[in-house]
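User: Fold this, then the next.

Assistant: Folding the first:
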Amino acid sequence: MGPPPPNKRIKTISVSRPVIYGNTAKKMGDVRPPNAPVEHTHVWTIFLKGLENEDVSYYIKQVVFKLHDTYPNSTRIITAPPFELTETGWGEFDIGIKIHFVDEANEKVLNFYHRLRLHPYDMTQPSQEEIKSIFYDEIVFNEPNERFFQTLMTKPGNLLPSNKTDSNPFSKQLELEEIQRIDDGTKEVKRQIEELQGQLEEKLKEEAAKK
Protein backbone atom coordinates (compact mmCIF):
# COMPACT_ATOMS: atom_id res chain seq x y z
CA MET A 1 0.00 0.00 0.00
CA GLY A 2 1.23 3.49 -0.84
CA PRO A 3 1.01 6.55 1.38
CA PRO A 4 -2.46 8.06 1.98
CA PRO A 5 -3.44 10.78 -0.48
CA PRO A 6 -2.48 14.29 0.62
CA ASN A 7 -5.13 16.05 2.68
CA LYS A 8 -4.95 19.54 1.22
CA ARG A 9 -6.44 22.62 2.78
CA ILE A 10 -9.17 24.31 0.78
CA LYS A 11 -8.12 27.87 0.03
CA THR A 12 -10.50 30.83 0.50
CA ILE A 13 -13.08 28.68 2.35
CA SER A 14 -14.26 29.31 5.92
CA VAL A 15 -16.75 27.18 7.82
CA SER A 16 -18.32 28.29 11.08
CA ARG A 17 -20.12 26.35 13.77
CA PRO A 18 -22.24 28.16 16.41
CA VAL A 19 -21.84 27.20 20.06
CA ILE A 20 -23.03 28.45 23.41
CA TYR A 21 -20.98 28.27 26.58
CA GLY A 22 -21.16 29.54 30.13
CA ASN A 23 -22.51 28.49 33.47
CA THR A 24 -25.65 28.13 35.51
CA ALA A 25 -25.65 28.36 39.30
CA LYS A 26 -28.07 28.02 42.17
CA LYS A 27 -27.80 28.68 45.87
CA MET A 28 -27.76 25.49 47.92
CA GLY A 29 -30.74 24.86 50.13
CA ASP A 30 -31.05 22.51 53.08
CA VAL A 31 -30.19 19.51 50.90
CA ARG A 32 -26.47 19.72 50.14
CA PRO A 33 -24.52 17.53 47.72
CA PRO A 34 -22.46 14.85 49.48
CA ASN A 35 -18.87 15.88 50.27
CA ALA A 36 -19.62 19.58 49.60
CA PRO A 37 -17.30 21.66 51.82
CA VAL A 38 -19.19 23.48 54.56
CA GLU A 39 -18.16 26.92 53.26
CA HIS A 40 -19.57 26.27 49.77
CA THR A 41 -22.83 28.10 49.08
CA HIS A 42 -23.71 27.31 45.43
CA VAL A 43 -24.00 24.43 42.98
CA TRP A 44 -22.83 25.41 39.49
CA THR A 45 -22.42 23.83 36.06
CA ILE A 46 -19.98 24.96 33.35
CA PHE A 47 -20.70 23.80 29.80
CA LEU A 48 -20.07 24.13 26.08
CA LYS A 49 -22.64 22.82 23.62
CA GLY A 50 -24.31 23.27 20.27
CA LEU A 51 -26.74 26.13 19.76
CA GLU A 52 -29.79 23.85 19.77
CA ASN A 53 -28.08 21.28 21.99
CA GLU A 54 -27.14 19.32 18.86
CA ASP A 55 -24.23 16.88 18.91
CA VAL A 56 -20.89 18.66 18.42
CA SER A 57 -18.66 15.62 18.96
CA TYR A 58 -18.23 15.13 15.20
CA TYR A 59 -15.81 18.04 15.26
CA ILE A 60 -14.95 18.46 18.97
CA LYS A 61 -12.86 15.69 20.49
CA GLN A 62 -12.71 16.92 24.07
CA VAL A 63 -13.13 20.00 26.25
CA VAL A 64 -10.79 20.78 29.14
CA PHE A 65 -11.99 22.99 32.00
CA LYS A 66 -9.29 24.49 34.24
CA LEU A 67 -10.79 25.35 37.61
CA HIS A 68 -9.32 27.38 40.45
CA ASP A 69 -6.28 25.72 41.99
CA THR A 70 -8.16 25.25 45.28
CA TYR A 71 -10.24 22.50 43.62
CA PRO A 72 -8.82 18.96 43.73
CA ASN A 73 -7.79 17.78 40.25
CA SER A 74 -8.39 21.31 38.99
CA THR A 75 -7.89 20.32 35.33
CA ARG A 76 -11.02 18.42 34.25
CA ILE A 77 -11.00 16.66 30.87
CA ILE A 78 -14.40 15.87 29.33
CA THR A 79 -13.96 13.43 26.44
CA ALA A 80 -17.59 12.92 25.37
CA PRO A 81 -20.76 15.00 25.26
CA PRO A 82 -22.28 16.58 27.18
CA PHE A 83 -19.18 18.75 27.55
CA GLU A 84 -20.01 20.00 31.03
CA LEU A 85 -19.19 19.54 34.68
CA THR A 86 -20.97 20.35 37.92
CA GLU A 87 -19.26 21.51 41.11
CA THR A 88 -19.96 23.42 44.30
CA GLY A 89 -18.29 26.61 45.44
CA TRP A 90 -18.59 29.99 47.12
CA GLY A 91 -16.52 32.35 44.94
CA GLU A 92 -16.42 33.56 41.34
CA PHE A 93 -13.29 33.03 39.25
CA ASP A 94 -12.08 32.63 35.66
CA ILE A 95 -12.43 29.12 34.25
CA GLY A 96 -10.04 28.24 31.44
CA ILE A 97 -11.68 26.41 28.53
CA LYS A 98 -9.70 24.47 25.92
CA ILE A 99 -11.44 22.92 22.93
CA HIS A 100 -9.57 20.04 21.27
CA PHE A 101 -10.85 19.23 17.81
CA VAL A 102 -11.01 15.78 16.23
CA ASP A 103 -7.70 14.47 14.87
CA GLU A 104 -8.72 14.71 11.21
CA ALA A 105 -9.29 18.47 11.61
CA ASN A 106 -5.57 19.07 12.24
CA GLU A 107 -6.55 22.31 13.99
CA LYS A 108 -4.89 24.03 16.94
CA VAL A 109 -6.46 23.90 20.39
CA LEU A 110 -8.84 26.81 21.00
CA ASN A 111 -8.26 28.60 24.33
CA PHE A 112 -10.51 31.11 26.10
CA TYR A 113 -11.93 31.95 29.54
CA HIS A 114 -15.32 32.18 31.16
CA ARG A 115 -15.93 34.13 34.37
CA LEU A 116 -17.95 31.88 36.65
CA ARG A 117 -20.97 33.81 37.88
CA LEU A 118 -22.82 32.83 41.04
CA HIS A 119 -24.66 36.05 41.87
CA PRO A 120 -27.24 38.05 39.86
CA TYR A 121 -26.36 41.33 38.19
CA ASP A 122 -29.68 42.64 39.46
CA MET A 123 -29.51 42.43 43.25
CA THR A 124 -33.32 42.62 43.45
CA GLN A 125 -33.51 39.18 41.83
CA PRO A 126 -34.53 36.51 44.37
CA SER A 127 -31.42 34.69 45.60
CA GLN A 128 -33.03 31.28 45.09
CA GLU A 129 -33.50 31.77 41.34
CA GLU A 130 -31.11 30.04 38.96
CA ILE A 131 -28.32 32.30 37.71
CA LYS A 132 -27.40 32.04 34.02
CA SER A 133 -24.28 33.46 32.40
CA ILE A 134 -24.41 32.16 28.83
CA PHE A 135 -22.69 33.42 25.70
CA TYR A 136 -23.08 32.78 21.98
CA ASP A 137 -20.04 32.42 19.73
CA GLU A 138 -19.00 30.88 16.45
CA ILE A 139 -16.01 28.62 15.93
CA VAL A 140 -14.53 29.48 12.54
CA PHE A 141 -12.39 27.02 10.60
CA ASN A 142 -10.36 28.94 8.03
CA GLU A 143 -9.27 26.87 5.02
CA PRO A 144 -10.15 23.45 6.51
CA ASN A 145 -8.56 20.40 4.98
CA GLU A 146 -10.56 18.39 2.48
CA ARG A 147 -11.38 15.45 4.75
CA PHE A 148 -12.49 17.67 7.64
CA PHE A 149 -14.51 19.87 5.26
CA GLN A 150 -16.43 16.79 4.11
CA THR A 151 -17.12 15.91 7.76
CA LEU A 152 -18.38 19.42 8.50
CA MET A 153 -20.65 19.33 5.46
CA THR A 154 -22.38 16.15 6.62
CA LYS A 155 -24.03 18.27 9.32
CA PRO A 156 -24.68 21.84 8.17
CA GLY A 157 -24.31 24.45 10.90
CA ASN A 158 -27.38 25.65 12.75
CA LEU A 159 -28.67 29.17 12.17
CA LEU A 160 -30.09 31.41 14.85
CA PRO A 161 -33.75 30.46 15.34
CA SER A 162 -36.41 33.09 14.60
CA ASN A 163 -37.62 33.34 18.18
CA LYS A 164 -35.92 32.91 21.53
CA THR A 165 -37.09 30.02 23.71
CA ASP A 166 -36.46 28.91 27.27
CA SER A 167 -33.94 26.37 26.01
CA ASN A 168 -32.18 28.83 23.69
CA PRO A 169 -32.01 32.50 24.67
CA PHE A 170 -30.13 33.44 21.48
CA SER A 171 -32.20 34.24 18.40
CA LYS A 172 -32.76 36.66 15.52
CA GLN A 173 -35.48 38.22 17.67
CA LEU A 174 -32.97 38.82 20.48
CA GLU A 175 -30.48 40.24 17.97
CA LEU A 176 -33.11 42.68 16.63
CA GLU A 177 -34.10 43.65 20.18
CA GLU A 178 -30.46 44.41 21.00
CA ILE A 179 -30.09 46.51 17.82
CA GLN A 180 -33.25 48.43 18.78
CA ARG A 181 -31.94 49.05 22.31
CA ILE A 182 -28.65 50.38 20.92
CA ASP A 183 -30.55 52.59 18.46
CA ASP A 184 -32.81 53.94 21.22
CA GLY A 185 -29.78 54.55 23.43
CA THR A 186 -28.00 56.43 20.64
CA LYS A 187 -31.05 58.64 20.06
CA GLU A 188 -31.31 59.39 23.79
CA VAL A 189 -27.63 60.35 24.00
CA LYS A 190 -28.06 62.60 20.94
CA ARG A 191 -31.11 64.25 22.55
CA GLN A 192 -29.21 64.88 25.78
CA ILE A 193 -26.27 66.39 23.87
CA GLU A 194 -28.60 68.72 21.94
CA GLU A 195 -30.30 69.72 25.20
CA LEU A 196 -26.96 70.50 26.87
CA GLN A 197 -25.81 72.46 23.82
CA GLY A 198 -28.99 74.52 24.02
CA GLN A 199 -28.43 75.20 27.71
CA LEU A 200 -24.82 76.18 27.02
CA GLU A 201 -25.86 78.59 24.25
CA GLU A 202 -28.43 80.20 26.59
CA LYS A 203 -25.78 80.53 29.29
CA LEU A 204 -23.35 82.15 26.85
CA LYS A 205 -26.05 84.60 25.73
CA GLU A 206 -26.77 85.51 29.36
CA GLU A 207 -23.06 86.05 30.07
CA ALA A 208 -22.70 88.19 26.93
CA ALA A 209 -25.72 90.32 27.94
CA LYS A 210 -24.17 91.06 31.33
CA LYS A 211 -21.02 92.52 29.76
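Now the next one, as you asked:
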Amino acid sequence: FDPQPLQQVGWGLALSVVSSALNGFLAWVMLAAAKQHRSIALEADAKHLITDVWTSVGVVIGIAGVALTGWLWLDALVAIGVAVNILWEGYRLIWRSSQGLMDEAVEPEVLAEINKSLQGFAHHTIRFDHLTTRRSGQRLFVDMHMHMPASWTLGRAAAVRTSVEQALMSAVPGLRASIQLLPMDVEGHFDDERDLI
Protein backbone atom coordinates (compact mmCIF):
# COMPACT_ATOMS: atom_id res chain seq x y z
CA PHE A 1 0.00 0.00 0.00
CA ASP A 2 3.00 2.31 0.46
CA PRO A 3 5.72 1.09 -1.96
CA GLN A 4 9.21 2.50 -1.49
CA PRO A 5 12.04 2.63 -4.05
CA LEU A 6 14.81 0.05 -3.55
CA GLN A 7 18.39 1.10 -2.94
CA GLN A 8 21.63 -0.54 -4.15
CA VAL A 9 20.07 -3.63 -5.68
CA GLY A 10 22.91 -4.55 -8.06
CA TRP A 11 24.46 -7.32 -5.94
CA GLY A 12 21.08 -8.72 -5.03
CA LEU A 13 20.02 -8.90 -8.66
CA ALA A 14 23.32 -10.48 -9.70
CA LEU A 15 23.04 -13.16 -7.03
CA SER A 16 19.40 -13.75 -7.94
CA VAL A 17 20.30 -14.31 -11.60
CA VAL A 18 23.15 -16.71 -10.72
CA SER A 19 21.02 -18.70 -8.28
CA SER A 20 18.19 -18.86 -10.82
CA ALA A 21 20.54 -20.27 -13.45
CA LEU A 22 21.82 -22.91 -11.01
CA ASN A 23 18.28 -23.79 -9.88
CA GLY A 24 17.15 -24.02 -13.49
CA PHE A 25 19.97 -26.43 -14.37
CA LEU A 26 19.32 -28.56 -11.28
CA ALA A 27 15.58 -28.64 -12.06
CA TRP A 28 16.32 -29.78 -15.61
CA VAL A 29 18.52 -32.64 -14.33
CA MET A 30 15.89 -33.62 -11.74
CA LEU A 31 13.07 -33.64 -14.33
CA ALA A 32 15.11 -35.98 -16.53
CA ALA A 33 15.73 -38.28 -13.54
CA ALA A 34 12.04 -38.11 -12.58
CA LYS A 35 11.03 -39.21 -16.07
CA GLN A 36 13.60 -42.00 -16.12
CA HIS A 37 12.66 -43.35 -12.68
CA ARG A 38 8.96 -42.41 -12.88
CA SER A 39 9.28 -40.57 -9.57
CA ILE A 40 6.61 -38.07 -8.60
CA ALA A 41 8.80 -37.00 -5.64
CA LEU A 42 11.69 -35.99 -7.93
CA GLU A 43 9.25 -34.28 -10.26
CA ALA A 44 7.75 -32.32 -7.35
CA ASP A 45 11.21 -31.20 -6.18
CA ALA A 46 12.09 -30.14 -9.73
CA LYS A 47 8.84 -28.18 -10.11
CA HIS A 48 9.56 -26.51 -6.75
CA LEU A 49 12.92 -25.35 -8.10
CA ILE A 50 11.27 -24.16 -11.31
CA THR A 51 8.84 -22.01 -9.30
CA ASP A 52 11.90 -20.59 -7.49
CA VAL A 53 13.41 -19.73 -10.88
CA TRP A 54 10.20 -17.98 -11.98
CA THR A 55 10.09 -16.15 -8.65
CA SER A 56 13.62 -14.84 -9.24
CA VAL A 57 12.75 -13.93 -12.83
CA GLY A 58 9.73 -12.05 -11.50
CA VAL A 59 11.92 -10.17 -9.02
CA VAL A 60 14.34 -9.14 -11.76
CA ILE A 61 11.52 -8.11 -14.12
CA GLY A 62 9.73 -6.21 -11.36
CA ILE A 63 12.80 -4.30 -10.23
CA ALA A 64 13.98 -3.62 -13.78
CA GLY A 65 10.48 -2.49 -14.76
CA VAL A 66 10.26 -0.11 -11.82
CA ALA A 67 13.75 1.24 -12.55
CA LEU A 68 12.89 1.89 -16.20
CA THR A 69 9.38 3.26 -15.74
CA GLY A 70 9.30 4.63 -12.20
CA TRP A 71 5.99 2.82 -11.62
CA LEU A 72 6.37 1.43 -8.10
CA TRP A 73 3.16 -0.62 -8.39
CA LEU A 74 4.65 -2.67 -11.25
CA ASP A 75 6.72 -4.74 -8.79
CA ALA A 76 3.58 -5.76 -6.88
CA LEU A 77 1.82 -6.69 -10.12
CA VAL A 78 4.69 -8.97 -11.17
CA ALA A 79 4.69 -10.51 -7.65
CA ILE A 80 0.99 -11.34 -8.03
CA GLY A 81 1.74 -13.03 -11.36
CA VAL A 82 4.52 -15.09 -9.72
CA ALA A 83 2.16 -16.07 -6.89
CA VAL A 84 -0.49 -17.22 -9.39
CA ASN A 85 2.17 -19.34 -11.13
CA ILE A 86 3.12 -20.97 -7.81
CA LEU A 87 -0.53 -21.75 -7.06
CA TRP A 88 -0.99 -23.23 -10.54
CA GLU A 89 2.10 -25.46 -10.25
CA GLY A 90 0.99 -26.54 -6.77
CA TYR A 91 -2.43 -27.50 -8.12
CA ARG A 92 -0.86 -29.48 -10.98
CA LEU A 93 1.44 -31.35 -8.59
CA ILE A 94 -1.45 -32.26 -6.30
CA TRP A 95 -3.43 -33.49 -9.32
CA ARG A 96 -0.48 -35.55 -10.65
CA SER A 97 0.11 -37.03 -7.19
CA SER A 98 -3.52 -38.06 -6.86
CA GLN A 99 -3.42 -39.64 -10.32
CA GLY A 100 -0.35 -41.62 -9.27
CA LEU A 101 -2.60 -43.44 -6.81
CA MET A 102 -4.98 -44.50 -9.59
CA ASP A 103 -4.39 -47.26 -12.12
CA GLU A 104 -4.25 -46.10 -15.72
CA ALA A 105 -3.05 -47.42 -19.07
CA VAL A 106 0.61 -47.08 -19.97
CA GLU A 107 1.77 -44.30 -22.27
CA PRO A 108 1.45 -44.81 -26.06
CA GLU A 109 5.24 -45.05 -26.50
CA VAL A 110 5.44 -47.83 -23.88
CA LEU A 111 2.57 -49.68 -25.58
CA ALA A 112 4.42 -49.34 -28.89
CA GLU A 113 7.51 -50.98 -27.34
CA ILE A 114 5.35 -53.83 -26.01
CA ASN A 115 3.75 -54.40 -29.43
CA LYS A 116 7.15 -54.24 -31.14
CA SER A 117 8.46 -56.97 -28.82
CA LEU A 118 5.41 -59.15 -29.42
CA GLN A 119 5.78 -58.83 -33.21
CA GLY A 120 9.07 -60.71 -32.92
CA PHE A 121 7.17 -63.76 -31.65
CA ALA A 122 3.87 -63.54 -33.52
CA HIS A 123 3.64 -65.82 -36.54
CA HIS A 124 1.32 -68.52 -37.90
CA THR A 125 1.82 -70.75 -34.85
CA ILE A 126 1.63 -68.06 -32.14
CA ARG A 127 -0.71 -65.10 -31.74
CA PHE A 128 -1.48 -62.66 -28.93
CA ASP A 129 -4.80 -61.07 -27.97
CA HIS A 130 -6.70 -59.49 -25.09
CA LEU A 131 -3.69 -57.30 -24.32
CA THR A 132 -4.33 -54.88 -21.45
CA THR A 133 -1.87 -52.57 -19.73
CA ARG A 134 -1.92 -50.55 -16.56
CA ARG A 135 0.31 -48.31 -14.54
CA SER A 136 0.11 -48.40 -10.76
CA GLY A 137 2.41 -45.79 -9.28
CA GLN A 138 5.89 -46.54 -10.66
CA ARG A 139 5.03 -50.08 -11.73
CA LEU A 140 3.88 -51.14 -15.19
CA PHE A 141 1.82 -54.23 -15.93
CA VAL A 142 0.74 -56.04 -19.08
CA ASP A 143 -1.72 -58.96 -19.27
CA MET A 144 -2.46 -60.95 -22.41
CA HIS A 145 -3.37 -64.30 -23.94
CA MET A 146 -0.81 -66.22 -25.97
CA HIS A 147 -2.33 -68.76 -28.36
CA MET A 148 -0.23 -71.67 -29.64
CA PRO A 149 -0.84 -75.05 -31.31
CA ALA A 150 -2.72 -77.49 -29.11
CA SER A 151 -0.13 -80.14 -29.93
CA TRP A 152 2.65 -78.29 -28.12
CA THR A 153 3.83 -79.75 -24.83
CA LEU A 154 3.41 -77.69 -21.67
CA GLY A 155 7.19 -77.44 -21.39
CA ARG A 156 7.55 -75.98 -24.88
CA ALA A 157 4.71 -73.51 -24.34
CA ALA A 158 6.15 -72.41 -21.00
CA ALA A 159 9.59 -71.93 -22.55
CA VAL A 160 8.17 -69.68 -25.27
CA ARG A 161 6.16 -67.72 -22.69
CA THR A 162 9.34 -67.20 -20.65
CA SER A 163 11.12 -65.88 -23.75
CA VAL A 164 8.26 -63.47 -24.44
CA GLU A 165 8.25 -62.23 -20.83
CA GLN A 166 12.02 -61.66 -20.88
CA ALA A 167 11.80 -59.78 -24.19
CA LEU A 168 9.03 -57.56 -22.82
CA MET A 169 10.89 -56.81 -19.60
CA SER A 170 14.07 -56.02 -21.56
CA ALA A 171 12.19 -53.64 -23.88
CA VAL A 172 10.32 -51.92 -21.02
CA PRO A 173 12.31 -51.82 -17.76
CA GLY A 174 10.15 -52.40 -14.70
CA LEU A 175 7.37 -54.09 -16.66
CA ARG A 176 5.57 -57.04 -15.07
CA ALA A 177 4.09 -59.42 -17.66
CA SER A 178 1.30 -61.91 -17.07
CA ILE A 179 0.65 -64.24 -20.00
CA GLN A 180 -2.13 -66.83 -20.09
CA LEU A 181 -1.43 -69.80 -22.37
CA LEU A 182 -4.28 -70.98 -24.63
CA PRO A 183 -4.53 -73.43 -27.55
CA MET A 184 -4.88 -71.76 -30.94
CA ASP A 185 -8.52 -72.80 -31.37
CA VAL A 186 -9.66 -71.59 -27.92
CA GLU A 187 -10.77 -68.04 -27.24
CA GLY A 188 -10.61 -66.48 -23.80
CA HIS A 189 -13.90 -65.14 -22.44
CA PHE A 190 -14.62 -62.37 -20.01
CA ASP A 191 -17.48 -62.24 -17.57
CA ASP A 192 -17.92 -58.52 -18.01
CA GLU A 193 -17.76 -56.64 -21.32
CA ARG A 194 -16.13 -53.73 -19.52
CA ASP A 195 -13.01 -55.91 -19.08
CA LEU A 196 -12.44 -55.67 -22.82
CA ILE A 197 -11.86 -51.92 -22.64
